[in-house]
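Side project, low priority. Logging it here so it doesn't get lost.
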Amino acid sequence: MSPVFVWRPPEQTNAENFYYLKQMQSKTLMSLVLRDGEVLNGVIEWYDKDCLKVNREGAPNLLVFKSNIKYMHKA
């Protein structure tokens, strides 16, 4: 009996990095919906593995933990 080859997806695709870099370079206005339902609008200035820095017009800039973000989309 020959061994069965099982394909597994890569653990790291860099899709998240690509997405953030694209939005940062184009200064896309983003809506971040937090786990509690609050919506933040702003431009992502930088990110790391745990958080995003969001620049907001007419409001304080924020450092948002990724674990508090339910989802995000272009505003």
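Brief comment: Residues 36 and 64 are 13 Å apart (CA to CA).
Revisit when time allows.
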